[in-house]
Every structure is written in C-alpha cells, then in structure tokens.
Amino acid sequence: MQRLLAKIAVVGLPNAGKSTLVNAIVGRKVSIVSQKAHTTRSVVMAVLTANQSQLVFYDTPGVVSQNESRQLKLPRPLIVAPRTAMQECTQTMLVLDTQRAQTENRIVLPPAVAFQNHEGRSEDAGSGAKLPTVLVLNKVDSLKHKPRLLEFTKQAKKMLHKTHDIKQVFFTSATKGDGVQALRSYLMTTAQPGDWLFKAGEVVNGTVNELILEFCREQLYRNMNKEIPYQTHLTIINIDNGQTDIKCRIKIEAKNRIVQSMIVGSGGERLKRMVAFAEA
User: Fold this and answer.
1) Residue 45 burial by CB count (10 A; 0-12/13-18/19+): exposed, middle or buried?
2) What is the pTM of this model?
3) N or C: which end of the chain has fewer CB within 10 A?
C-alpha cells in the first residue's frame, strides 16, 4: 500500500499550549512544557504513525516580535524557527490561546513577522497563494462563556484571511484532551502520498542524550522562578545505558554563585526534587 505523509508546522505565541497539544495528539510526551515563555528553544519534530499514514509535527518556539526578540536577546535560530518550519511543511497548525483572549477581550495573533520572508514580505506576496492552515483555539476549558468561541473565531478569520487559507477550525483543551481526537483524525486525512521521514515506532527526532537534557531542562523551568532557567547550561558528563534504564550524570552550569545556590536550594532539597521529577 502507498505511504502517506503530512508535515505540519505548529505555530503560535509563547504559552499558547503548542507543545502540550502536540504531546496530546501524539499520545505521549515528546516536547517539554512549563508555564514559562520560550520553554521550547528549538524545533522538535514529533511523529505519529498509524497504518500507512505518518504525521510529522514541527513544534516551534513561540513567535515573538522583533522588539521583543531584541529586548530578550533571543538567538536568531529561535526567532526564525517558526517561519522556517512553515516553509518546509505542507500545512500550518496555528494555535491560539482563548484564555488570553478572554483576559484581553480579543483574540491575539502572532506578530506578522512570523508570516514574512527574509525580505519582510508576506510569503504569499506575488504568488496569490495562501498558507494552508488548521486553526486551533486552545484552552477552551478556561472560558467562562463558551459562545465567545464563535466571536474569537470570527476575529481570527478576519485578521488572517489575506495570508491564510483556513481549512478547518478546532476547539481544544490540550490539558484535558477535549477536541484532540477530532483534530488528530482530521490531520490524518490531510496526509498525501510521500515517503515517511521516520521509521514506524519512532516518535521524536533527536538523540537519547538530547532528550535527556531536554527533560532535565524542563525541571529547571518548572521549579525555578523568573529568569533563572535562562541563565543555566546543561551538559551530560557520562551516561550508562542499562537493559531497563539509563543512568547519567548531568552538569548544570550557572551564571554565578547566587543562581547556583538557588538551584541547589536549602540542604540540596530543590535539586533533589528536580532530579526525582526528571527520573519519573
């Protein structure tokens, strides 16, 4: 039978729930998540294979404006990753945060820079083509008044109609699983004839070492306040692959002794807690 493939760029503002949604669709944890912005620092390729179809999700860092990127001194690969992913993929899954929309009383879209090429023009400029897009309004469980979903959907469509070809709209709660099955089923129907990028059974790109560092870094984001996680660097000192588990030593380099003591915590308790969660 012919194999089918869909490459999907997952794009949205920081903390829109992109990685949580990808994990829910794939059915296992492949991307780290936390409440802090810019937890995703590079593109993670998550894979879902069923029968003859394979979906490859390019889980991208949150889109930021040029001013914000300068203020936060974000590395260029992180800034251009969403746009690059959209260029490589056959469709875009644009994830919008309805919790934020409820707070600000309007839907909030990523900056236009996400949909521009390196010359500052829209990707469809001169070609008449629009980005094939699946629009996902996430965190719907946080909405007090569900009818507002239609209002937010209309707002988003109106703002996107010049650059995006909205194929379908889905309402999801990635944390509770609401709407995820319907979204997954639809995405499977979009797969087109093509060679798979990954073998059956593979669920994420990256080496074992890279995944270990990512899950350790997740605990820094979850357990440390403010800017502390951004002031650290993790390195694997050694690794021992057993038959049923992996044992490794991780070196955490901190910006200064103050940051170091905050990570360790009183009597080493905070560090012990992070290690326990990372091992779970």
Assistant:
1) buried
2) 0.76
3) N
